[in-house]
Amino acid sequence: MVAVAQLVEPRVVISAVVGSSPIGHPIFRYLRLSVLLMSLLLAGRAVAGSPVPQLFVAGDSTASEYKPNPKNQQGWGAVLQPLFDESKLRVVDVARGGRSSRTFITEGHWDRMLTQVNAGDFVIIQFGHNDSGALNTEPPGSTKPLRARGTIIGIGDESEEIDNVVTGQHETVYTYGWYLRKMIADTRAKGATPILVTLTKTNHFEDGRIECPNGSYRRWAWQTARDEKVAFMDLSRVAADRYQRQGPEAVTAQFIDDTVHSNLAGAEANAADVVSLLRADPSLPFRKMLSKRGRAVPADRGAPKTSVCEPLVQ
């Protein structure tokens, strides 16, 4: 519009404005036509180029993607997309193996993810498996490598100053809950929706019963979600009850050579559990975004009376 007007000689514009029929002057008809064409062009671009909502998965090795490997290790975030219609939702798995809520942030993975997050997107936040590690140096007698990835237990505002033995930098270490709250606030600042998810369940049976206590990271994630009023999914509970139904032998077949990391079959089972929880929350729009395969996954109905998990209480 401005460029067109600047090309018109002043006397033409003046005569059009002060003439007996300014609206009918050719220049005004031209300008109206230009506005109409530009509006149609922008509308077409908005329809053709608008990206579908994105669902980001921020987590550790249990959710991260792995290239083909001898152990067939795979994380659930890597196999989540087939459960959704790609024309309605795009899954972006940014989970990284070995990361805690702290190191996912301090190593820059979180900030890099945020550059891709748009208003209307969703961010799943799932950490805890690595948060129990040492804050800085390993205790005497430990044979574990120096990783300095642990967080202070709980969800309070406690902090500790350290000189990081890995990075050589001074660092303030916070609680598990503090890092979750930062992720929630950052997600909301982008106009996106945060979703807190409890840990994948480890393969620990005791006398034929899977262990699923009400404590530590499962409870802290729930408390943080409650306090911050964000969507919460108790994947630990859903997976534990599934394990109990399937039994130790079938569950062990879903893991590699340890009790934490899933193979492809285990990853797909965890992804289905995630979908069952996502579609069960009426405040989230995921029911309309599922693929045919995703629609075959029933929505979670809450903890059954026979649940092996202790209820989440204060």
How would you characterize this protein structure?
The protein is an alpha/beta fold and 314 residues long. The protein has 2 domains: 2-47; 53-295, Rossmann fold, CATH 3.40.50. The protein is 36% helix and 11% strand. It is built from 11 helices and 9 strands. It has helices spanning 2-7, 10-18, 26-49, 101-106, 109-114, 176-189, 216-228, 235-246, 248-252, 264-278, 292-295; strands at residues 54-58, 90-93, 122-125, 159-163, 170-174, 193-197, 205-206, 209-210, 231-233. The strands form 3 sheets. The protein has a 5-stranded parallel beta sheet, with helices on both faces. Strands 4-5 form a two-stranded antiparallel sheet. A hairpin with a 6-residue loop joins β4 (159-163) and β5. α6 packs parallel to α7. The model is unreliable at 1-31 and 33-50 (pLDDT under 50).
Question: What is the fold's blueprint, element by element?
Answer:
Elements lengths: L1 H6 L2 H9 L7 H24 L4 E5 L31 E4 L7 H6 L2 H6 L7 E4 L33 E5 L6 E5 L1 H14 L3 E5 L7 E2 L2 E2 L5 H13 L2 E3 L1 H12 L1 H5 L11 H15 L13 H4 L19
Helix pairs in contact: 6-7
